[in-house]
Amino acid sequence: MRMMASSSSLLLQFLAPLLLPLLLISPSYAQSHRNISLGSLLTPLGRNTSWLSPSGEFAFGFHPLENSNLFLLAIWFEKTAEKAVVWCANRDKPMQYGSTAELTTDGQLLLKDHSGQEVWNATINNASYAAMLDTGNFVLVGADDSVNWQSFDTPTDTILPSQVLDPGTELQARLTATDYSSGRFKLSFQDGGNLVLYTAAVPSGNQSDTYWTSDVTVRNGSKLVFNESGSIYFTQKNGTIFNSTSATMEQMKDFYQRATLDFDGVFRHYVHPRNGTRKGSWNESWTPVYIQPPDICQAITAKTGGGACGYNSHCIFEGLYADCECPPSYSFFDPSRKYKGCKPDFAAQSCDADEKEIEALYEFQPMIGWDWPLSEYEQLYPIEEDQCRKECLSDCFCVAATYNDWNCTKMNAPLSNGKTGSSPKTKSLIKVPRSNTTQFPPPIPIGERKDKKSWTRTGWLLLGTSALINILLVAALLLFAFHSYKKRIHSLQPNSSGTGMGLRSLTYRELQEATNNFSEQLDYGGPGAAYKGYMLDDSSTRVAVKRIENLLPDAEGEFINIVKAIGQVSHKNLVRLLGFCDEGTERFLVYEFLSTGPLRSFLFGNVRLKWNQRIQVALGIARGLLYLHEECGSQIIHCAIQPRNILLDDNFVAKISNFEFGKLLRADQTRADIAVRGTAGYIAPEWFKNMGITAKVDVYSFGVMLLEIVCCRKNLEPAVENDEAAILTNWVNSCYRNRRLDMVVGGDEEAIFDLRRVERFVTVALWCVQEEPSLRPTMWKVAQMLDGAATVPVPPDPSSYISSIQ
């Protein structure tokens, strides 16, 4: 959001919402119109089916519905090939032949069905006449030439240039592309001046989960304005303007415009060349020039519901529009209403069937990248893919599983919120019927059994010897395969260490061999050196071996507690623990190896991550911290969140490391009974006060690091001439308050183009670095706000604790 540069443009945009009502109540409209006199009547058929605006560009009347004999009382673009409907009165009850729309002699606008029963009215009496304006607004005008009612005040799913909305106004999408009844998505202009997209229940219309917000808080009589230059923005009484969207183009007067909340939940700003004009490559059709959210499949992250496409379905966003697909051996309940989801085309697995019968009936169809995150109910780790298949196959509740990098996640029915997963390596295994399902032979008729008895006895004698030989051969092969399998996975199997977490206990000698006597040290940050090594397995798995130092006097107990706690965690944004060594005074943790290195190398060095990569890094760190704080078995407070403790894998996925030095916090434990941890600049103020240490210390550190990720500079830069600019939190806060966030990202063109997200991230960070811990959001709230699933209000002006302790 930026102040508009041109003062004249700003003045015009501010005056637009104020002048419009004056134009409407003026005895002579700024644009000509045709009065519709009292007693005028419209019918679905015949000569009087609609009333046109003076230019003939808009029509008010009975609009026929596609592939039916029903009609809407609606307003639409008359001169375009696709006569887009922009407003309708009876979206949930279309009319039949014989219906009427009448401006009665007592000044009422009434819609009656074919039986003469009133279906809708404009809730106004004593209008002197009506008019269909060239703005697309239908008005009822009183005796004093004031507008008593207008369609602009009761929008359905579309707004038009010159339309002004008051807080509390809502748009509701249609159900499908051709069904105009109330659909599954709403756009609400809240009292605080914020635009919010919700999912809505059908048919009740009750709104539930937010999946997009404009992140704007405007007060003092705010209004939402759609001006004729293509901008949609907020205004206040004091004249302040806040941009919400911007699709401004040159010669916008040569295009029709509309902004519609479409049936798929996406808010799109469309343009269409006017008759006789053709701008460059523009087609004679409605073309979206702005969409929000950019990917509806990923935007809907509600904890309940079927997602963008319904249960057992998968949402794919390609180009400008989303589509829904069914998994293999599934089909849509209703192909014309894909949002209802998919149903399996085969019988569900019986929980009473034996193992052989199940293997004969079902197999798995792999789908790369598909995921249903709301259907997960059990995670298995570490495990190979074949074993993952067996675990799901033997579980009658498991209809699919995802497998990625030794992680197996089982999912039950119905599959919910289907979308492309965050990792392209994720493989979904869909349980489907075998294409060559074994058919058991039919029973032998009783009359034939005696004739075959003698053959059967002889056959069994002949087959017996052969079967015995075959059994012995198969047993030998299985025994050989079993020993090979055990040897292959030995490096990741638990031994008698007593941790019970499936981690390998290694000897000090084994680690010496694996690391070539600790010869290659890694830049992994944190206390204790880390070394590169190779496991003694068939694939020579690369690992990072970390030495654990400076434990408490009760070192043995503390180290085992660390191993048990870390052994329980499993998240894609946490570095994975593979094994440990606890021999005498030597203690090591063996982690997966991440070749790309620490995040700090890609923020403050010569090679920097692109803006889109930094976005994903920030989101990944937030999700990893959320897992440590709220989703793993025992809450873990990291206590040292900073770029050196964030490692990147080959795909630049962020993984939190060094959380073994964090604090394992019991539910009733908040005392500051541990020494100050962390690095200057990232340390929360409560470390230096007589206050309880809670998960909010990580929130503070994350806020500082989030600003570093946005700005690509360290939180402390003593060499900077300006004292305020030397401390990143102070400088960014000043830029934020002065609306100069373009300075924060410098010459980063990608970030400048995405300045709305920059502002959201900065606003979240400023909430995180509040000196008072109770003002900081939880990591769950932080993740919601960063994803755009929750509103981000303006934060209080934070005090700079850093400056007071330097």
UniProtKB/TrEMBL annotation:
<dbReference type="InterPro" id="IPR011009">
    <property type="entry name" value="Kinase-like_dom_sf"/>
</dbReference>
<dbReference type="Pfam" id="PF01453">
    <property type="entry name" value="B_lectin"/>
</dbReference>
<keyword id="KW-0067">ATP-binding</keyword>
<dbReference type="GO" id="GO:0016020">
    <property type="term" value="C:membrane"/>
</dbReference>
<dbReference type="GO" id="GO:0051707">
    <property type="term" value="P:response to other organism"/>
</dbReference>
<keyword id="KW-1015">Disulfide bond</keyword>
<keyword id="KW-0812">Transmembrane</keyword>
<dbReference type="InterPro" id="IPR024171">
    <property type="entry name" value="SRK-like_kinase"/>
</dbReference>
<dbReference type="GO" id="GO:0004674">
    <property type="term" value="F:protein serine/threonine kinase activity"/>
</dbReference>
<keyword id="KW-0245">EGF-like domain</keyword>
<keyword id="KW-0430">Lectin</keyword>
<keyword id="KW-0675">Receptor</keyword>
<dbReference type="InterPro" id="IPR051343">
    <property type="entry name" value="G-type_lectin_kinases/EP1-like"/>
</dbReference>
<comment type="similarity">
    <text>Belongs to the protein kinase superfamily. Ser/Thr protein kinase family.</text>
</comment>
<dbReference type="GO" id="GO:0030246">
    <property type="term" value="F:carbohydrate binding"/>
</dbReference>
<keyword id="KW-0472">Membrane</keyword>
<feature type="signal peptide">
    <location>
        <begin position="1"/>
        <end position="30"/>
    </location>
</feature>
<dbReference type="InterPro" id="IPR001480">
    <property type="entry name" value="Bulb-type_lectin_dom"/>
</dbReference>
<keyword id="KW-0547">Nucleotide-binding</keyword>
<feature type="transmembrane region" description="Helical">
    <location>
        <begin position="459"/>
        <end position="482"/>
    </location>
</feature>
<feature type="domain" description="Bulb-type lectin">
    <location>
        <begin position="36"/>
        <end position="153"/>
    </location>
</feature>
<dbReference type="InterPro" id="IPR000719">
    <property type="entry name" value="Prot_kinase_dom"/>
</dbReference>
<dbReference type="Pfam" id="PF07714">
    <property type="entry name" value="PK_Tyr_Ser-Thr"/>
</dbReference>
<dbReference type="InterPro" id="IPR001245">
    <property type="entry name" value="Ser-Thr/Tyr_kinase_cat_dom"/>
</dbReference>
<dbReference type="GO" id="GO:0005524">
    <property type="term" value="F:ATP binding"/>
</dbReference>
<keyword id="KW-1133">Transmembrane helix</keyword>
<keyword id="KW-0325">Glycoprotein</keyword>
<keyword id="KW-0723">Serine/threonine-protein kinase</keyword>
<dbReference type="InterPro" id="IPR036426">
    <property type="entry name" value="Bulb-type_lectin_dom_sf"/>
</dbReference>
<feature type="domain" description="Protein kinase">
    <location>
        <begin position="516"/>
        <end position="792"/>
    </location>
</feature>
<keyword id="KW-0808">Transferase</keyword>
<keyword id="KW-0732">Signal</keyword>
<protein>
    <recommendedName>
        <fullName>Receptor-like serine/threonine-protein kinase</fullName>
        <ecNumber>2.7.11.1</ecNumber>
    </recommendedName>
</protein>
<keyword id="KW-0418">Kinase</keyword>
